[in-house]
Amino acid sequence: MSLEALDKTRSEHLRQWASNKVKDVLGYSENTVVTAIIACLGRKLSESQTKEQLRPLLEDETDEFVHQLYVRYEQLIDDKKLDIKENATIQAQPKTKKRAIEDVFGDDIDEGADPGIRKISKLKLPHEQMEESRLIQTDLTPAEQREFNEKTMLQINKLREKVQKDEDKRRSKGSIGKDSAKAYLTEAMASKDRAAELKSKINERMANLNLPILTKGPCLDKEGRATDASGKTLTVVKHEPTLKINLRESKRKNFKIEKPDDNQTVTNPYFDPRMKIKAPQRQSRAMKFNEAGKFIQIAQKQRAQSKLEELQRKIAATAKKTGISTVAKRVMLTDDTVAKDDPVPDIEWWDKFILVRESYDTYEQPVSEEEMLGAVTHPKYREITHLIEHPVSKAPPGSTQTVPPHSIVLTKKERRKLRTQRRLERQRDEQEKIRLGLIPPPPPKVRIANLMRVLCSEAVQDPTKVEATVRAQAAERQKKHEKANSDRQLTKEQRSAKKVAKLTEDTSQGVHIAVFKIDNLSNPQHKYKVETNATQYMLTGLMMTGKDNNIVVIEGGPKALRKFKRLMMVRIKWDEDVRSSRKNVEDDKKPKNQCKLIWEGTRKTRYFSKWNTKHILGDPSSAKEYLSKFNCQNFWDLAVCENIVAEEV
To answer: What are the pLDDT digits (tens) for 59-97?
Structure first.
């Protein structure tokens, strides 16, 4: 089935029928459902497939609705086939054949009536045919009655078109004379009287049949209320919102904060007079007028600020040429805890224990006996004797007390010779124990190759048994060898502990520290390589990234630090950027990214207990504050100084 089988008039009729049906089922008109119904017919779906498609929309009424839809659709197709058949019959008839009066107007013609009136009386008007058809269909349900009426309307429309065509043909033949005009006028008057008479008869018969009255749609009365055809007031269902925003808006309108009555404040024991209810009010804003000259002053300040910035740029350029800017920047890196303007003391703290007078001004004046006697008896001079104190000399950190002896490096031939000698010595010891009877002699090592040479006569007497015995001994020796190898093999935990012990170095005598500065550390591959190698080499330290400075602090043993230095300075290609596979012209103008070792040394203890990663956002002073927790903020100052030197170059 497809809508292509129907013409335009019947397609529009089917759409209107579907819209009315949807309105009867749902209670309101819904164009989306009608469109879905027409789409199902257009896609040539079966009745069961259409039910599955429309069930979410029509729910329980789906089966009955779809059945009526397809019945209506088949009726329209049958009507179209009938029209096609009638047109084919008319076209097959010869054009010269004239139609008889009975073919046009029927057989029910009054014998005594005028011929013209007889013709008009037999021609039933469209509304007369509709009324007669309604009289015939008296035992139908309301739904079937509506379908019958719609089908009748289609027939009326076809009949009207047919009459209009005949009238056009008649007019096209020529003008009408006076006699013909009078005859037509007489026929029209007779037709009008006949139609009025027939209409009265139909109304009488309809009243006797008690058919359901077709009411008109709702209308408005004088007061604007919706009423039906009988004048009764209709109750209009209020539309309820479905969206959440509309629901909240309706709740807000319905919910009103009402102030309590005076009677409620007295009778209600739960009323709290301290709770004040205030409705939200918008504060009124008064108009503010700008004073005369306000924007002129703002413009003058902006001009002065721009001139000041231009002057500062010139001064900075001049200071950079003379080197004053470098000194100023380095002065700013000094520790804030040191007082900048310390007053000169009257006497230094190391001279207070020796000088009698606490001032350098009276140093050249002679000391009296009383002052000398008082100084000798003073407690601070009791520690001064004629003895000389020699402090205990300590080894500097990182230096070992005992120098380990150098191992002798042997050649491959010498190592093989020593191994042979140790094996011979072990065999001599076993032979001595066998000779003394301490251990039993080992059984002969028989193989298939030396079977006849070792066993001789036994191998000749029963060779099959001897061969089985020899193979069993060989299998036992192989099993024993594999078991010894598996016993010597380390477990997973032992291998991991051995690897950690190999990488872990002794830092009790001192920790080796290195500080690196990288221009740009935004590449994630570079970060991963630095972190992974530091963890694998059992190193501690910090990787700090920021907008201007990127530093890496590494501390550990000398061997691991040497490998890590090679990683940072040689192995990692800092100019590579995996995010941009192709090189642009602008990339050549950018400064090359490089890594620089800015400090290296040793320390007694470590700064960090583990590997740390820190990203600095905003003010660079937060980086120095973070490093101060580990007492190594001077590393950040070193990186800043390197930037200053690089700018000068």
So the answer is: 777 788 888 888 888 877 777 666 666 566 555 555 444
Closest by CA position to 66, among listed 46, 52, 47, 53: 47
Return the axis-axis angle of helices 142-172 and 62-92, rounded to nearest 10°: 20
Element (H, E) at 454: helix 451-455
Q: Which helix (H) or strand (E) holds 447?
A: none
On whether the CB atoms of residues 162 and 144 are closer than 8 A, the answer is: no
Q: Which residues pair with 556 in a beta bridge?
A: 512
- 67 within 8 A of 47, measured Cβ to Cβ: yes
Enumerate residues 6+ apart whose C-beta is below 8 A from 367.
356, 357, 375
- pLDDT (mean) for 18-47: 77
Closest C-alpha among 537, 529, 574 to residue 554:
537
Q: Give the torsion sign (CA, 364, 365, 370, 371).
A: negative
Number of helices and strands in the chain (H, E): 24, 7
Contact 517, 551 (CB under 8 A): yes
Handedness of CA 639, 645, 648, 649 (dihedral sign): negative
| Distance separating alpha carbons of residues 187 and 115, to the nearest angstrom | 10
What is the model's pTM? 0.40
Residue with tokens 């830092």: 507
8 Å CB contact between 574 and 595: yes
C-alpha 186/C-alpha 6 separation (Å) is: 42
Cα(419)–Cα(500) distance, rounded to whole angstroms?
30
Report in angstroms the alpha-carbon separations of 450 from 441, 444, 461, 467, 489: 19, 11, 16, 11, 33
